[in-house]
Design goal:
This protein has 162 residues and is of the alpha/beta class. It has five helices and six strands. Helix 2 links the parallel strand 2 and strand 3. Helix 1 packs parallel to helix 2. The longest helix is centred in the N-terminal third of the chain and has 16 residues. The chain is globular.
């Protein structure tokens, strides 16, 4: 089983009545599109893309959805907000039958990565920059990181740099 954890792209600061309303910046959109193109070019396949419902996560998920065309669509789900507990998801995620992509926020994504890899939140074994994506695989009763893609790596790959 594979799961892809994605932190939303860079979001606008201030000027919004509610934090949930902050949209992606132009840079956030560009970074997410770069990541999405790299994953599509690599032939990445997911059954469904799920996001927290906050504007910045929804916009990130929609950009990814246009590139990856998941058969199960792009949907908002509960439990992916920055302050949500990660333990329920960490316990159940290995039961998914098809690869899914989860688009959310920090510190949630870093805490979820920690819970999957160490069994506890708070260790933060991965640092999720905005628009960063990590592929986790569950095999023989344990999670491991298969790869991680950041906007900087995707840009260097596009430019032909190593």
């Amino acid at each position: 089983m594979r799961v892809y954890l994605v932190r939303h792209g860079k979001a606008a600061r201030g000027g919004y009545a509610h934090d949930a309303d902050r949209p992606l910046t132009d840079r956030g959109k560009a970074d997410t599109e770069r990541i999405a193109r790299r994953m599509a070019k690599a032939g990445l396949s997911v059954q469904q893309i799920r996001h927290s419902g906050l504007v910045r996560a929804e916009q990130t998920a929609e950009i990814l959805g246009r590139a990856l065309n998941p058969p199960g669509g792009v949907i908002a789900v509960a439990g992916l907000h920055y302050a949500d507990p990660v333990e329920p998801l960490a316990r159940e995620l290995h039961l998914e039958e098809e690869p899914v992509m989860l688009v959310g926020h920090n510190p949630f994504m870093e805490d979820l990565a920690s819970a999957l890899l160490t069994g506890e939140r708070g260790h933060r074994p991965l640092w999720f920059t905005t628009a960063a994506t990590a592929c986790f695989e569950y095999d023989h009763g344990a999670w491991s990181v298969r790869w991680m893609l950041t906007p900087e790596i995707a840009q260097k790959a596009k430019d032909g740099k190593r």
